[in-house]
Structures are given as structure tokens and as C-alpha cells.
């Protein structure tokens, strides 16, 4: 850990970053190492194919969407700041963080997490998950054994279930209501994302 | 019904068992039978008249007439008893497993011990003495090695090595701590007068402390297998218990030597020698294991011609590493552990896939079998009044200290480890770790080889060890599961999940998995990177076959495997459905297709059909007629779907989701399971996803190659080129249907793109659902990464194999058409196709 401070110094605006994301210096360094490892050509930013080189992502049915989520519209690269900020969505919710009334909602709040997921569905960014968009996701996530008809019926049902205003699409509010609380507790607080950045010791 | 079955089995068990008992009592001389655990001690002189006369098969001094058959019990006695006992023990396991409501509460190991009590009671009732018990020699030489080998061979070794530091600290320092403190505390209590008058000196207490500190992998795994804990905790407990055994044995030997030396002779020099010998034995054993691992890996490079016994080499050499270490008085357990852990990667790559499967199954059978026997015999051995010397103080204090010091040790060491860990091991995990310190057969084995001359109170120690074993295995084993559940109470109320909920849950899991991958699962710190470099450069060169080296590229390997499995499925399916009828019932397209495939895969068919037992397509209960009548192409592998079509209601939607949503790896922890070989629950799913992704990623390559520089390709590989034409380009529009992941924009794109380069990149546009708006899609002029370029050459071949198979699995109507149109072209390609090997 001798190089902690020197590594940190190399990252611009590290203080701001840490405050925004809530990562500890150790985490930041860890992520920075990883970022550099992914950035094989050393350009200081990542391109989609840098993510594509992560072989496990090929096993992920929605891996390509997730990669896409790292890139804001119109951009082909992602720099370290954005990278960290996106990862910060998946930090466990701090249970005993002092609540400051006028501080902005932390990145890793439940609703931000859900929003991240929502945008994976909502590829055309119109704030609604349409039937088509849902179908695409379902197709990606369901096994080959399911036929097209079944897919459609599932999609219809899913929309029906969530659709409160009967517009045949799921808005974020609706999405949030139907996303079970269980998610919150199980998948995020225990999320081992950070845990897996563990150092061998 | 279930009860009846259970009863019948129990009856069968008793019959088999009583046979073995009777067989034993028939015996007249009190010879040492024990090749295995059956030591015949006090044979009741039962001169069973008729049998005894003819027993001596080989000494018929005078025969009056030629006997047609003779009774030769003595000839077969030992192996017969061994086999009967094995059968008995395994039947015990069967009985245990009959009722799942029982095994969900009691751990199986505990149940087996209890059944052992019963069997032991019967033996005692018949013989009035315990004629069978677990003999340390048999335990250490015939039962333990395969368990350790299996455990280490199946060890998730990335996880193991990345946590090696923590594991070693727990295994070495933790064990020494336990041994020392338990020994000293017991001695202190003895001096304080807590256990009356015993003939035990401080050194003997230390020796006892050493043997009782052996956390037993067998017991630990048996319990933890059913409790799903996170992978770091799992590997810590598992790795520790495995290495801990080795350390305990070493420690035991050191103290044993001290005891034989006698108190007065021990001076500083001897103590230093003891410490040195500890390290030499432990690390020497590990080193020997690594040497054997290298030997095995190198041997598997050249065993191609004797594939049938390939798997046997591993087992024999593994066993030899154990024996060699024993011979050199190094730590045998550590030796075989490291042998298994180190060689697994290379031998899996070197050996044929079949041999790998064989090896795993064989090891599982052996390990599972001997584990069962160990537990049963731990129970049987208890029913022996000779070993029970009761000393309440000693026994209770031992249990107390064992538990307390385990907790103190684990918490203290974890506290130290947490200082340098990025993510501390949290308190509940620590608690589970400490609580998971189950003692088992190793402790018993060590206690049983105590020398009664040196340690007068051997039986007290043996009895106490047994009690500690029962206490930990049964009591802690039972409470472990509720405890883990209770500690992680966060399991929210189980509400009725909605479709949305189900889907989103799964989506989130996928997202998290992806994030983990992006963050780098194992972390790539300096050591990992350098080791990888070193391994790639030297180790693989030394230990891997040249073609295995090629296959080592994980993506290539996966691709190859997928193709192979597809082929297997196809053939299996074809065979299942019968021969000619099946072909005639379908349109010509599928026949052509089948023929083509047969040709293409002709060279591998004999091999792959052998594997098919692995795949369960779940079609056994589908009436054949329903398949026959269906106009869907023959190769539709998913027969389920035809059933499902008929029930389009909510329930089925839920069911479908539940069944077919891809699981993320998070559900699929790399647990080591003794009784189940399936390491991952969903290899098929992985295949599917992988194929989809790969296809959508590779699609751009192919079309780019076709579109951009066809001339060059043609001149170089005319045949190849022509073969992937039909499957590649023309198939594109058809293929979009099942996946729905390709926009037409894509083909236009590829025409306009100027370089191959852009295409690798553009895959994100084509992938499932990455819509037109995906910002990444706009970028076209990016060079493909190194990896991508490197993979280019083999892509078309593989894809070609893949494509027809996969397409055939479509059953949507539009696809039938696609298939038909496609397959008409197919036969022409035959001469060109079957020269390429899979």
C-alpha cells in the first residue's frame, strides 16, 4: 500500500470522484488498475471492444446491453470518471450513512439502481419500455426452448401486470412499483461486486 | 408407498448385514482379517459342523471321492467381508437418502454415524465384542487418499489460489494455535484437579491437542455442501480444512516424537529441530505434490494412445504421491492435495474429454463411497466397551476448549487478515467459519494410532475424540443450517413474485454478474498477471500438448465444446426417434440435412455417441406419436415446447419464466460437491447464451470477409469460402427471426463499411436488443482488438458447423422455410465440407 497516495495523485479530481461515488481510496485504486488493464492500448479511455475482450461477458445474455450502458449517447469512449460512476451504482447501500437533508441522492440508491436497469430495457430512451423493447430483452434472457408465441404472451402479461395507466408500456414509475423489494435487499446490499474486487492476501 | 420402499430397503440392508456378521462368526480362527476394517478378534468358537469340515479347500489330505463342489469360505473370506461391508455402508447411504425431509434437517454424515451405531449394536449383540472397527492403517491408506484427491482435483482452483494466503494462515497458524492452547489448557485444568487422577503428562496433553485440532474436510464438506455460503467463505473453510489435516498430522508426528523422547531430554535444540521438521515435512510434502502434478501433466501429454486407461494414470500417480510422501515421512495429505490442485488444469486440457469425465466420476464414486464408509464406521467403532473410559471432566473440558479456542483463533486470525484485506471478512462469516470447525475421521484415526505404551490413557483419548467428533458432526452439523439462515436473516418475506419481478430479478443478477466481470473477478494484481505470463510462456509449453495449448484459449475451447455437444445432441436425437420412419415422415429438407450432418460428423460420431448419457433431454415422457405427427423438422430438439404450446395461461408463463430464464453465474457458485458431479447447473444455458453472443459478434466478421475481400479469400481457401456462403450470408435474413437481434440496417452497414475493422465493433448493434439508437453502433472505424484478429481464421469453419445445427433447432414456421431453402443447397457442399474436422 505504499504507492497509495502516488497512484491516487495520478487520477485527476480524485477527491470529487470519491465524494460522488462513495468509494474508498483503496477501491478507487483497485478500479483504476482494472481500468488500465482493460485499456490495453493505454489511451486513457475505454471503447466497447475493450469490454468485448472480457470473455465472461460473452456468457451474459444481456452483456452487450450492459456494455452499451457505459456509453452515453453519442460517445464512443468512456473515461475513468464515468466508468467509476457507473460502477458506483452497484455499491451496497450504506446503512448508516448520515442523512444530509439537502445532499443529492447517492448514486447507489435504490431508485438509481433501478433506473440503470430500466435503461437497459428502454433502448430508445423515451422513458417507457414498449412491448417491442420488452420482447427483445425477453428473447435475450429466455432460453431457446421458448417459442415466439410464448415469448409474446409473456411480454403481454408482463406489461399487463405492470401497466397502471393502460398505455401498453411500462414507465419508470411503474417499473419501480413492480420491482420487488426483495431485489433491494438481496441483490444489492449483498452485492459482491465490491467484494470481488478483493485483493488476495 | 415411500415408507414401504424404505422399509424394504432397510430389510435388505439388515439381511446383507447379518450375512456379513454370520459370515464373520462362522470363522474359527481368530486371525487378523483386516485387509480392511474387519479385524477379527475374539471369534466365538462356533464349530459349525458341516461347514467347517469342508472349509479347508487347499488341504484335503484324504479324499474318498471327487467332490463336485466344495465350500471354500476361507479362500474368499477377506475380500468377501470387505465387499459385504462396502455394500452395507452404501445401502446405509441409500436408506439415508430415501427421505429428503429427514436429510434436510439432519446432515447425512450425522445420519450415517447413527446408522453406524445401530449396526455396531447388532455386531455387539451377536459377538459380544466389537469385531469390526475402523483401523487407522486402512483409513489412512485406503479410505482417505481418494477423498483428498477428489476434493483437491475438483477444487475451484482460481479461488483457492487467490485466497491461498488466508487459507495458509488459518491452516498453519490456526492449527498450531488450536493444538497448543487446547493441550495447555487441558493440562492446566488437570493440574488444577478438574479431572481427578490421570496418568497424562503435559506433552501427552499437547499430543492430544494436536490430534483433536484436525478440522476434517470430509465432515466439513458434507455439511457445507448443503449450506450455501458465499464463495470466499466457502473456499476459506474448505481450503483450511483440507490443508489443516496435513498440518495436524505433521504436528502430531512432532509431538509424538517428543513424547517418545520423554520430557527430560527435550532441550532447546530438540525444540528447534521439531519446528524445522514441521516446516520441512509440511512444505516438503507440498513440494512433492507439485512435482507429481508436473509428472502427471507431462504424462498425459503422451497418453493419447491408451485413452482407455488415461484416467487411471491420474488416480494411480495421485496415490503414489501420497505413498511416496508417506515413505519419505513428508506430509502425505499435503502432497496429494497439491498434486490434485496443481495438475487439474493441465490434465483437463491434455486428456480427452471423455477421460476427464471418467476421471471425475471415478473419483466421485471412490470418494463418496469411502466417505460413507468412514462415517458408518465412526458409528460402528463407538459400540465397544473397551474404549470407553469415562472421565466427565476431561471430556467436557475438551469439548469446551475445542470450541472456545477455535472461535478465539478464527476471530483473531481474521482480525489480522482484515487489516490487509480490501474487503474484510465480516463477522457472520467469521462466526460460520469458526462454527464450521468439525472434527472427523482424521482425528479419530490419529487417536487410534496412539501407542498405548507411551500413552497409558489412550482409550480415554480415543473415547473423547469420538465424543468430540459426534458432538461436532451431529450437533454442529444439525445446527449449522439454521444458524446460517438465521445469521443472514435478510431473506425478505417471500411474496408472490410477479412476472416482472422474476424477470427483473434475473436481469439484475445478470447485470451484477457483468459488473463483477467488468471489475475483474479475481482482481488482476501483480502476481496474477505475472504468473499468467509465466504460465503462458513456460508452464503450458512444458505441460500441455500442442493442440491442447491451442484449445486453451477459453473462447475457442468453449466453441469447440459447444459444437461437439450440438453434434452429440443431434445424433442422440436422431437415434432416439428411430431410424427410417423418422426420416420418411419429414420433408426432404430435413433428410438432406441429416445426411449432410451425418457426413460431416461422420468421423466423430462414434466418439460422441458414447457421451450421450450425460444429456438428459427430458423427452422420455413425451409420447413418440406426438413427435411423429408434428410437421416440425426432425431435429427440433426441444420437444417440450410442443407440449407447452397448449397451455398458454398465466401459470405456464410463470413456469416458463422460472424454467427458462437464464441463470446468472451468481446462482451457480463454484461449490465442491462430493456427491454430485455436475459442477454447473446449466451448461446448456451457457452454451446457448454463448452461441448467441458469439454468433452476433461473429456475424460482422463473416460478412465483412465476404463483402470486402472475397477475392483473396477465394484464392486461398476456395472450398471453405464456398461452404460458408450458404450458411453465412444468405442465412442472415432468416436468422434474424429467432433471435430478433439483427436489424436490416446491419447488412446495409456491412456493405458500406470499408474495413473488417468496423465490424467487430458493430456487434453491439446487432446484439439482442441493442437497438438502433445504441450510441456505440455509430462508431465504425475502430480496429478490432488483438484477440479478435487472432480469432479470425477459425471463425468460419466453426461457425459453419454451428450454423446448420442451430438453425435446425428452430421450430418456428418461418424457419422451416429458411431451413428448406438452405438445405437444398447443402448437399452440393458435401465434398467440401467433410474434410474439415471439428
Automatic annotation (TrEMBL), chain A:
This protein's UniProt keywords: Calcium, Cell membrane, Cytoplasm, Lipoprotein, Membrane, Metal-binding, Myristate, Nucleus, Phosphoprotein, Protein transport, Repeat, Transport
Which residues does the UniProt record annotate as the domain EF-hand? 109-144, 150-185
Q: Superkingdom of this entry's organism?
A: Eukaryota
Q: Which SMART domains match?
A: EFh
**Gene3D superfamilies to which the protein is assigned, alphabetical:** EF-hand
* Cellular location(s): Cell membrane; Cytoplasm; Nucleus
Q: Which GO terms describe its molecular function?
A: calcium ion binding
List GO terms (cellular component aspect). Answer: cytoplasm; nucleus; plasma membrane
InterPro entries attached to this UniProt entry:
Calcineurin_B_homologous, EF-hand-dom_pair, EF_Hand_1_Ca_BS, EF_hand_dom
Q: Which GO terms describe its biological process?
A: protein transport
Say yes or no: keyword Lyase present: no
PANTHER family to which the protein is assigned, alphabetical? EG:114D9.1 PROTEIN-RELATED
Q: Which family does it belong to?
A: Belongs to the calcineurin regulatory subunit family. CHP subfamily.
Protein name according to UniProt:
Calcineurin B homologous protein 1-like
User: What is the organism field in this record?
Assistant: Sinocyclocheilus anshuiensis
Taxonomic classification:
Eukaryota, Metazoa, Chordata, Craniata, Vertebrata
From TrEMBL, chain B:
The biased composition feature labelled Polar residues covers 670-681, 775-788
Q: Where is the signal peptide?
A: 1-23
Q: How does it sit in the membrane?
A: Multi-pass membrane protein
Concerning InterPro entries, the annotation shows: Cation/H_exchanger_CPA1, Cation/H_exchanger_TM, Na/H_exchanger_3/5, NaH_exchanger
Biological process terms in GO annotation: regulation of intracellular pH; sodium ion import across plasma membrane
Catalysis: reaction(s): Na(+)(in) + H(+)(out) = Na(+)(out) + H(+)(in)
GO MF annotation, one: potassium:proton antiporter activity
Residues annotated as transmembrane: 80-98, 110-127, 139-155, 167-188, 200-224, 233-255, 275-296, 308-325, 361-383, 395-417, 460-478
A Pfam family hit: Na_H_Exchanger
Gene3D superfamilies assigned: 6.10.140.1330
Q: Has UniProt tagged this entry with the keyword Cytoplasm?
A: no
Where are the stretches annotated Disordered?
Answer: 662-685, 698-810, 819-838
Key words, A-Z:
Antiport, Cell membrane, Endosome, Ion transport, Membrane, Phosphoprotein, Signal, Sodium, Sodium transport, Transmembrane, Transmembrane helix, Transport
> What family does this chain come from, according to its entry?
Belongs to the monovalent cation:proton antiporter 1 (CPA1) transporter (TC 2.A.36) family.
Record's PANTHER family?
SODIUM/HYDROGEN EXCHANGER (PTHR10110), SODIUM_HYDROGEN EXCHANGER 3 (PTHR10110:SF90)
Summarizing the function annotation, the protein's role is:
Plasma membrane Na(+)/H(+) antiporter. Exchanges intracellular H(+) ions for extracellular Na(+) in 1:1 stoichiometry, playing a key role in salt and fluid absorption and pH homeostasis. Major apical Na(+)/H(+) exchanger in kidney and intestine playing an important role in renal and intestine Na(+) absorption and blood pressure regulation.
Instruction: State the protein's name.
Output: Sodium/hydrogen exchanger
Q: What is the lineage of its organism?
A: Eukaryota, Metazoa, Chordata, Craniata, Vertebrata
Amino acid at each position: 500500500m505504499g504507492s497509495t497516495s502516488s497512484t491516487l495523485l495520478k487520477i485527476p479530481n480524485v477527491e470529487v470522484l470519491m465524494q460522488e461515488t462513495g468509494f474508498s481510496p483503496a477501491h478507487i485504486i483497485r478500479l483504476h488498475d482494472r481500468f488500465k488493464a482493460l485499456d490495453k492500448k493505454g489511451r486513457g479511455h475505454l471503447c466497447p471492444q475493450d469490454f468485448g475482450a472480457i470473455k465472461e461477458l460473452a456468457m451474459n445474455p444481456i452483456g452487450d446491453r450492459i456494455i452499451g450502458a457505459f456509453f452515453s449517447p453519442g460517445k464512443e469512449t468512456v473515461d475513468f470518471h464515468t466508468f467509476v460512476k457507473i460502477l458506483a451504482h452497484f455499491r451496497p447501500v450504506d446503512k448508516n450513512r448520515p442523512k444530509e437533508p439537502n445532499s443529492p441522492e447517492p448514486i447507489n440508491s435504490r431508485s438509481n439502481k433501478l433506473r440503470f436497469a430500466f435503461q437497459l430495457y428502454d433502448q430508445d430512451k423515451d422513458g417507457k419500455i414498449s412491448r417491442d423493447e420488452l420482447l427483445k430483452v425477453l428473447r435475450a434472457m429466455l432460453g431457446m426452448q421458448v417459442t415466439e408465441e410464448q415469448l409474446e404472451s409473456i411480454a403481454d402479461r408482463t406489461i399487463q401486470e405492470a401497466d397502471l395507466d393502460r398505455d401498453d408500456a411500462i414507465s419508470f414509475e411503474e417499473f419501480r412499483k413492480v420491482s420487488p423489494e426483495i431485489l433491494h435487499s438481496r441483490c444489492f446490499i449483498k452485492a459482491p461486486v465490491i467484494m470481488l474486487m478483493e485483493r488476495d492476501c | 408407498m415411500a415408507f414401504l420402499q424404505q422399509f424394504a430397503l432397510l430389510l435388505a440392508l439388515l439381511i446383507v448385514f447379518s450375512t456379513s456378521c454370520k459370515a464373520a462368526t462362522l470363522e474359527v480362527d481368530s486371525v487378523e482379517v483386516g485387509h480392511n476394517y474387519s479385524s477379527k478378534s475374539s471369534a466365538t468358537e462356533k464349530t459349525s459342523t458341516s461347514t467347517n469340515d469342508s472349509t479347508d479347500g487347499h488341504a484335503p489330505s484324504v479324499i474318498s471321492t471327487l467332490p463336485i463342489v466344495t465350500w471354500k469360505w476361507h479362500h474368499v473370506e477377506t475380500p468377501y467381508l470387505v465387499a459385504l461391508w462396502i455394500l452395507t455402508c452404501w445401502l446405509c447411504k441409500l436408506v439415508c437418502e430415501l427421505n429428503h425431509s429427514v436429510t434436510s434437517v439432519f446432515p447425512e454424515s450425522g445420519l450415517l454415524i447413527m446408522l453406524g451405531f445401530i449396526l455396531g449394536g447388532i455386531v455387539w449383540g451377536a459377538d459380544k465384542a466389537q469385531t469390526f472397527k475402523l483401523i487407522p492403517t486402512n483409513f489412512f491408506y485406503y479410505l482417505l487418499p481418494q477423498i483428498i484427491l477428489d476434493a483437491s482435483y475438483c477444487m475451484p482452483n482460481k479461488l483457492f489460489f487467490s485466497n491461498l494466503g488466508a487459507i495458509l494462515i488459518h491452516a498453519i497458524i490456526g492449527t498450531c494455535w488450536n493444538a497448543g492452547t487446547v493441550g495447555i489448557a487441558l493440562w492446566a485444568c488437570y493440574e488444577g484437579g478438574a479431572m481427578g487422577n490421570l496418568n497424562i503428562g503435559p506433552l501427552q496433553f499437547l499430543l492430544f491437542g494436536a490430534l483433536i485440532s484436525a478440522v476434517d474436510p470430509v465432515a466439513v464438506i458434507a455439511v457445507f455442501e448443503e449450506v450455501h455460503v458465499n464463495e470466499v467463505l466457502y473456499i476459506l473453510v474448505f481450503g483450511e480444512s483440507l490443508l489443516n489435516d496435513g498440518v495436524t498430522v505433521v504436528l502430531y508426528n512432532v509431538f509424538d516424537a517428543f513424547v517418545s523422547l520423554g520430557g527430560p531430554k527435550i532441550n532447546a535444540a530438540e525444540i528447534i529441530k521439531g519446528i524445522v521438521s514441521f516446516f520441512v515435512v509440511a512444505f516438503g510434502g507440498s513440494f512433492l505434490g507439485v512435482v507429481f502434478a508436473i509428472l502427471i501433466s507431462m504424462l498425459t501429454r503422451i497418453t493419447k494412445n491408451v485413452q482407455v486407461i488415461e484416467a487411471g494414470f491420474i488416480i494411480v500417480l495421485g496415490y503414489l504421491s501420497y505413498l511416496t510422501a508417506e515413505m519419505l515421512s513428508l506430509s502425505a495429505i499435503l502432497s496429494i492435495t497439491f498434486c490434485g490442485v496443481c495438475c487439474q488444469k493441465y490434465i483437463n486440457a491434455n486428456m480427452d474429454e471423455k477421460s476427464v469425465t471418467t476421471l471425475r466420476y471415478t473419483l466421485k464414486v471412490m470418494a463418496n463411497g469411502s466417505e460413507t464408509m468412514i462415517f458408518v464406521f465412526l458409528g460402528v467403532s463407538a459400540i465397544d466397551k473397551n474404549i470407553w473410559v469415562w472421565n466427565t471432566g476431561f471430556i467436557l473440558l475438551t469439548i469446551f476448549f475445542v470450541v472456545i479456542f477455535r472461535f478465539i483463533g478464527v476471530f483473531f486470525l481474521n482480525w489480522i487478515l482484515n487489516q490487509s484485506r480490501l474487503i474484510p471478512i465480516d463477522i457472520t462469516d467469521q462466526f460460520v467459519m469458526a462454527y464450521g470447525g468439525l472434527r472427523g475421521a482424521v482425528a479419530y484415526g490419529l487417536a487410534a494410532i496412539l501407542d498405548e505404551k507411551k500413552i497409558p490413557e489412550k482409550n480415554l483419548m480415543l473415547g473423547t475424540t469420538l465424543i468430540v467428533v459426534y458432538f461436532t458432526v451431529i450437533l454442529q452439523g444439525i445446527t449449522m443450517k439454521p444458524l446460517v439462515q438465521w445469521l443472514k436473516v435478510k431473506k425478505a418475506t417471500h411474496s408472490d413474485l410477479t412476472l416482472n419481478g422474476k424477470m427483473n430479478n434475473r436481469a439484475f443478477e445478470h447485470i451484477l454478474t457483468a459488473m463483477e466481470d467488468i471489475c475483474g473477478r479475481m482482481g488482476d494484481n501483480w502476481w496474477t498477471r505475472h504468473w499468467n505470463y509465466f504460465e503462458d510462456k513456460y508452464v503450458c509449453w512444458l505441460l500441455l500438448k500442442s493442440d491442447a495449448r491451442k484449445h486453451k484459449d477459453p473462447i475457442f475451447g468453449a466453441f469447440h465444446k459447444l459444437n461437439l455437444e450440438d453434434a452429440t445432441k443431434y445424433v442422440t436425437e436422431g437415434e432416439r426417434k428411430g431410424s427410417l420412419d423418422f426420416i420418411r415422415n419429414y420433408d426432404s429438407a430435413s433428410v438432406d440435412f441429416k445426411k449432410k450432418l451425418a457426413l460431416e460428423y461422420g468421423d466423430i460420431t462414434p466418439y460422441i455417441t458414447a457421451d450421450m448419457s450425460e444429456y438428459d433431454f427430458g423427452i422420455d415422457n413425451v409420447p413418440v406419436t406426438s413427435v411423429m405427427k408434428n410437421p416440425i423438422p426432425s431435429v427440433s430438439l426441444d420437444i417440450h415446447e410442443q407440449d407447452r404450446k397448449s397451455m398458454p395461461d398465466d401459470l405456464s408463463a410463470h413456469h416458463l419464466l422460472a424454467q427458462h430464464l437464464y441463470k446468472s453465474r451468481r446462482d451457480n457458485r463454484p461449490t465442491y460437491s462430493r456427491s454430485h458431479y455436475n459442477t454447473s447447473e446449466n451448461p446448456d444455458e451457457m452454451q446457448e447464451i454463448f452461441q448467441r453472443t458469439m454468433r452476433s459478434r461473429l456475424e460482422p466478421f463473416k460478412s465483412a470477409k465476404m463483402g470486402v475481400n472475397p477475392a483473396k479469400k477465394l484464392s486461398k481457401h476456395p472450398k471453405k469460402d464456398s461452404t460458408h456462403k450458404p450458411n453465412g450470408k444468405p442465412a442472415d435474413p432468416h436468422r434474424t427471426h429467432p433471435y430478433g437481434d439483427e436489424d436490416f440496417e446491419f447488412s446495409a452497414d456491412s456493405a458500406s463499411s470499408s474495413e473488417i475493422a468496423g465490424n467487430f465493433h458493430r456487434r453491439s448493434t446487432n446484439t439482442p436488443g441493442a437497438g438502433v439508437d445504441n450510441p456505440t453502433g455509430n462508431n465504425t472505424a475502430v480496429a478490432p482488438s488483438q484477440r479478435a484478429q487472432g480469432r479470425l481464421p477459425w471463425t468460419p469453419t466453426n461457425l459453419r458447423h454451428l450454423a446448420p445445427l442451430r438453425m435446425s433447432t428452430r421450430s418456428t414456421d418461418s424457419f422451416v422455410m429458411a431451413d428448406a431453402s438452405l438445405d437444398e443447397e447443402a448437399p452440393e457442399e458435401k465434398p467440401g465440407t467433410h474434410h474439415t474436422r471439428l
